[in-house]
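Forum: Protein Structure Q&A
Topic: Joint prediction for protein chains with partners

I've read a bunch of threads here and the consensus seems to be that you should model interacting components together rather than docking separate models afterwards. I'd like to see that in practice. Below is the full input, 619 residues plus whatever partners are listed. Could one of the regulars post the assembled result?
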Amino acid sequence: MMERSDIAALYNEILDEFVAHPPEKPEEYWIRMTSGTTTGRPFLTIWQKKSAAEWPHAASMRRFIVAYGLLATRMSNVLSFRNNTGNEGALVLPLDAGALNPSVERLLDDFAPDSFYAIPSFAARISEHMNEKSRSVVHTLGFSGEAISKTLGDTFMSRFPRARQVVTFATSETGVITRFPCDHLSPNQYHPREGIVIEVDEPDERGIGYLLISKDLLFGKRMEHYRIGDMARIVPEACPCGRALTFEVFGRAGYDFIKVAGAILQREEFDRVASECAVLFDDYYAEAEAVVIDGKLKGKIVLTVYRANGVASVEEIAKEFSARVYLTASQTLEQLAEQEVFLPLTVIVSAMPLVRDGKAKKLSLRT
Amino acid sequence: MGELEQLVTFASESPFSDFYRNKWRGEKAFERLPYSSRADFVTVPLSHRRYKKEKGMVKIVGTGEQTFLSEWSFLDIGREPYAPHSMRPFVYLTDSYEAVEKSLWCYENGMMPLVGEKDSDMAIFAAGRYQIDSLIVDEESLMKFAPFFSTLRAPLASIAVIGSAFSPNTLMSFERYAQSIRLVLALPETGAFAAAPLSRTPEFIPLPNCIIEHDSEISLTKIVRYPTPIIRYKTGIHTTSTGSDRSFSLAV
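Posted by a regular:
Agreed with the consensus. Here's the joint model:
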């Protein structure tokens, strides 16, 4: 099994080969740096010519917005757009997050986007600056980089009523590893691209374990059983489209999907409950950990909330949130606290809006 | 009909946009054409000043309420004379739209660039790993990138500093880090229009296809059929005489 350090070493060998023996047409490759925000330092990855030609709807993307935080990811998608041969006369706007101020609505109206490829949280912010008419012409929302909760998916459906949501799985180390989704897949389910091998390591009783990826890289190198840090399962049911393998991703281990004290904390579930508690607070961040009290291992969750207007009641939030959030298939935090498997929920009210790194992380494992 | 005259005719008779036709109100003599400026681009949406439809990118120019869209076809991007060819260029610019565009310029000219993220530590690390041999940069990001040069074993082949204003005395401190350092006068909406080798008193020479009228402020015409052509465009850049008709200096 390969860990991130092994992948970094592979890509360093590829880079050294590229520098020592540059190809005849370097413009047919592209190079980017990984984010380095999970574990370890960033490293440079090199890929061969990118094209979005695999997207069946690429020719209809005439006014395309690319919205990612990392400049490298924006550049990657602009390059794919440029290299696509079916979109003469089309335009791409690689939107910078700093542009999201009130004046951007006029510019988005002028550009009149019909398609996006974005990180979901960024796309949600952009949509707040688009009027109804502008949003009504968007026909494709392409997402990668974050799991999409049902809440967020429903939000996109209501804001972009004519848009199809297309989710692909991609990382800076692996590139895009999934096909354009068929009509039968549920959210966060994918078919792997040709040449990609998907496996799951240490599956639990539900089949959920660590996602392993294998694929060929440049210059004869191969990524073999790379444990990328996401949790996934192989979907046992055959897909009506006929593709041999379907896998489902549950998010980053330690962030979107946390195992603590025998329970499973999923960000999607926390988002759902936060939505139900919208009258009590506007934003949240939860940190979970395992603690030892009187020699017994117990789970502990600290929920930090922010309320823009009004006073947040710690007691009411703790009561409501605990009663609603499921940490197992059948038990809520309130029930697990009664059994002393978890400590009662701790709620902290932040006087300032919550600021978090990276992709709007809302749940994390304290180690 | 000369190329300039053809450009003016193209803009005034275009079926795609009324932008210059409305501005010029029938005037056809170049020297009497009313000037255009950023204020016009802010006021008139891009969709009303598009003179051709080629595949390309759009960028947001300006800040706050004074923002507008600027469209560049990929082919036009490739034709800009930003920098010499190199094996491993590093693009490190403060404005992310300019960073994407200059990276595309590299691809259009047969190079594989590495684009630097905003964080200077990450940028320096990446540039070192890629063993860059040239730099496309603006003055602000060059200052942030300065620690990189202490790691160099040999001077870079070139540094192209792109912008609308320069501090030559400050930039001279980088002289020993590249075989050539070129100052490229450019605006996001016009592209490059003049260049000068780095010196304490740089003398800028207009680039090909650029007509520069500089009675104190540069008014620029580029004989290129851009999506929004640049014709008698007030740049806001002020000049001083060098004593030569062929060159100018920037006012301090």
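The mean pLDDT of chain A is 88.
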